[in-house]
Amino acid sequence: MSFRLWPRSLIGQLFVAVALMLFVAQAINFTLLARGQRQQVLAHGGGMAAGRIIDAIERDRRGDVLRGRDDEERPRRERVQKLVISDRPPPVLPGAKRMPELAAYVAGLLDEADLKAEAVDAWVLPQRPGVKRPDYPSRTVVVSAKVGERYFAVRSRIQAGGNRLQGFLIWQTLTLYLLLLVPIVLIGWRAARPLRELTRAARSNPALRDATPLAEEGPSDVRELIGAFNAYRARIATMLSDKDRMLGAVGHDLRTPLASLRVRVEQVDDDRLRDKMIASIEEMTAMLADILALARSGAGTEIQERIDAAGLARELAADYGEQGKDAGLAEIADAAVMARPMLLRRALRNLVDNALAYGVRARLSIAVVDGMARIIVSDDGPGLTDEQIRTLVEPFARGEQSRNRATGGAGLGLSIARDIAEGEGGTLTLANRDGGGLDAVIALPVV
Predict the structure, then answer these.
(1) Are the beta carbons of 385 and 432 closer than 8 angstroms?
(2) CB-based burial, 123-142: b 16+ in 10 Å, e otherwise
(3) What is the pTM of this model?
(4) 160, 179, 180, 276 — which has fewest CB within 10 A?
(5) pLDDT tens track for 360-384
(6) Contact between 124 and 42 (Cβ < 8 Å)
C-alpha cells in the first residue's frame, strides 16, 4: 500500500513546504548553537583547568607548593580536592567518564603557553546522590597533565548538558510556526477559496446557462483571473443563446416547406413513387429532429431533479413491451440520481433503439459501483471493434454503413446520449461483453 505524503491542495503544499523549511532551518540552528555551547563549555571548564595547571607548574618550579606558601591558608580537604601533584598518574574514580574533547582543548592551551605536556586526560565525575543545583547545573571534571616527570591534576566545573538549549529551541520553533504558518494558512485559504469556486464553475456545463458572475475575491491575481473567467463565460452564454435562436429559426424554416411538400406529395397518383417520396420526407424530418436534438442536448429550461433509476428502467421496459419490442429487465439495483428526466429518458431510448436495431433484444440493468449508478443497456448483437467504440459516439458515425435509416439511422443516437450523460455530470461508455454482445453504460453520481 502506497501513501501519498505530498498534499495536492495549495494550502497543504504551502503548509508542508514552510513547515519543512522551518524544521531544516531550526535543525541547522540547533547544530550551530549546540556546537557553540560545546565550545563555550570547553572554553570555560578547560580554560579554568589549564589556568590552574599552569599556575601549579609555575609554583612547583618556584617551590611554593612544597613550602605550602599559598595552600596552607586553605583547609587540607579543599587543597586535596582542587590540586594534586604527584609522580604517578592520578587514579580514576569509579563511574567517571573520559572527555577526550576537553583533554584535547586543555592540551592546546598548554601548548600555546609553551608547556609541552606529554599526556593530558580528562574525566567527568558522577553526580553525588542528593546533590542538585537546578538553577546552575554543572558537573565536576578532573583534568590531568604530565609535564616533565610530574603529573598535575586539577578539578574544574563545566555546564551539564544542553537541556536549557533544547527547551529554548523548542519554544522558539513553536513560536516561529505560529508566527509564520498561521498567516500563510490564512493567506492560502484566502486565495484557495475563490479558486475552488472558480474550478466548480469551470467544470459546470456551459449549456446550462448558469452564467451568474462569480464574486471577485482573493489576491489581485486571483481577482483578475475570476474577472476574465466571468467575461469568458458571458461570451459563451451569448454564443449559445445565438445558436439556439438560429437553430429554432432553421427548424421552423425547414419544417414548414417539408410539411408543405408532404401535402403535395399526397396528390401523386403513382402509389409506388408517392410512398418513396413520403419515406424520403419522413427521413429528412427525422434527421432534422435528431440534428436539432444533438445541438440542444445541453440546453432547455428543464431543471435537474431526483430520479429513481430503477423506476425509470421499469417504465422504459414496459413502454417497449407495449410496442411489441423485446426490451426487458435484468438485475436492477435501487439507486437515485440527479438528472433532467426528459433528457435522461431520451438518452436511454436512443441506447435501447440501437440495441434493438443491431441485436435481437435489449436488456436494462442497474448496478451501483464506487458511488456511481451504472444504467446498462445490453444487446446480443455482434459487438464492436475497438476502433468502432472510439468513433461511434461522434456525430453521424454509424455501425451499419448503409444510408438506410431503417437499418442504421443518421448516426446521431449515441452522440445525443453521450452529450446528455455528460451534461448531467456523468459518462457514456461502450464495452463488448464476454460471451458476445455490447454494453452501453450511462454512469451518474448516486444521490
Answers:
(1) no
(2) bbbeeeeeeeeeeeebbbbb
(3) 0.46
(4) 179
(5) 889 999 999 999 999 999 998 888 8
(6) no
* pLDDT tens digits along 251-299: 777 777 888 888 888 888 888 888 888 878 887 777 677 667 656 655 5
d(C-alpha 368, C-alpha 443), whole Å: 9
DSSP string, 170-228: HHHHHHHHHHHHHHHHHHHHHHHHHHHHHHHHHHS-GGG---PPPP--SSHHHHHHHHH
User: What's residue 136's pLDDT?
Assistant: 40
Residue of 319, 320, 324, 317 lying closest to 366 (CA atoms): 317
| Domains recognised in the chain with CATH numbers | 10-126+133-164 (no CATH), 221-295 (1.10.287), 305-445 (3.30.565.10)
Say which residue the cell 408532404 belongs to: 262
Per DSSP, the three-state class of 142 is strand
Could you give the count of Cα atoms lying within 13 Å of 9 in the half-sphere of its Cβ? Answer: 12
Q: What is the CA radius of gyration of the chain?
A: 46
pLDDT at residue 239, rounded to an integer: 83
In whole angstroms, what is the distance from residue 375 CA to residue 367 CA? 7
Residue 372: name the closest of 433, 308, 317, 426 by CA.
426
- Between CA 411 and CA 409 the distance in angstroms is 6
C-alpha cell at 359: 441485436
Helices 100-112 and 47-62 meet at what angle, rounded to 10?
50
Give the whole-angstrom CA distance, residue 162 versus residue 45. Answer: 15
